[in-house]
Amino acid sequence: MRRITRRSFTVAALGATAWRTGGPMAAAADPSGHPAPAPSGGPGAGRTRPRPTLRGVWLATVAHRDWPSRPGLPPAEARRELLALLDAAADRRLDTVFFQVRPTADALWPSPYEPWSGWLTGQQGRDPGWDPLGCAVHEAHRRGLELHAWCNPYRVALHDDPGRLDPSHPARRHPRWVVRYGGKLYYDPGLPEVRRFVQDAFLDAVRRYRVDGLHFDDYFYPYPVAGETFGDDASYAAYGAGFPDRAEWRRWNTELLVRETAARVAAVGRATGRRVRFGVSPFAVWRNRATDPAGSDTRAGVQTYDDLYADTRRWARLGLLDYLAPQAYWHLGFEAADYARIVPWWARTVAGTGVDLYLGEALYKAGDPAQPAPWQDPAELSRHLTFADRYPQVGGHVFFAATEVAADPSGAMARVVADHYR
């Protein structure tokens, strides 16, 4: 998304052209020689039940992308805005909301680990006087909607001044955890204590609320910034022994986060008798075919495997997740990353793994005059769903984002509903 959340990188990531059976980590062991679990150990592996269909929407809170409209809204007004977005999702016959509840290492619930989000009140750490996540879960379920808690694992702030964080913020109490990069602050994914802490933080929401899932977006290691180097020398020196290079070590750090989170989410589900799903919505290009024969027939300027250190194809093949929702944010016929080439690649990738596949759809592009001509046609997204219907591995679609679902300025969402969601 990156559009200050995560979606805006979907165009920029294509660089000048435009947001395995092979592959270096295809073996069933990690680069240091530690054994990887067999595919049967993953949450999705071995499943024989029919794949569920899903009609989802992302509801972003960072930088007031979808909600709240501004900081410091009175609780009653903020609640009305939130319920209006849930109403719109239900009216559009959607069934799942991915609610961003941990946008910048802060919380939209009374977390014992992190401060209240400044996106709510304008001041990080200030109690808004109500519980947005608790309200959202209750009201979504009343409307027949699933509610998945969407968390960004490592982003700390959209600025690079720790002094602007709440005094109680863990990043201020543990400055060694923090890396300045690209004008922002991030936790260092190479530190085991960081990985454990961020899991504790978002698992608190899974334990305390009857959420239907835990959801990560595409930010693991940050998107590359020209001329800058992510400063993890100290953690690499401490923990990188046994890996052939830093890139393999970083990929293993990301995979550990996914593995451990999946196991802990499953444990909460068993302990509470609930069905809690865990999934990721990665940037849709794992690798270009020119980089790796197993990659997609694309020419993206960013590759998830190489630049974000997220081996999403391997995660699927090992069944580490319940679902993947790649951000397939390009139109049919787009030369650098054609939707018609992205979809069959992902269908092949999840085939036989037990991992569900949902396609992220760029509703925000529909009717935007800055976008290419195909996005000016309100039927473009409907054609996406028609095309994806050819692939039985596709179990649904997720639309970015809630504002466009509600307002639908181009009529593209109404066309999807009329054509596919009767």
TrEMBL record:
Its protein name is Family 10 glycosylhydrolase
Disordered: annotated span: 23-51
Pfam hit, one: GHL10
The entry's keywords: Signal
Report the source organism. Streptomyces catenulae
Record-annotated Glycosyl hydrolase-like domain positions: 54-371
Which branch of life, at top level? Bacteria
* Coiled-coil region: none
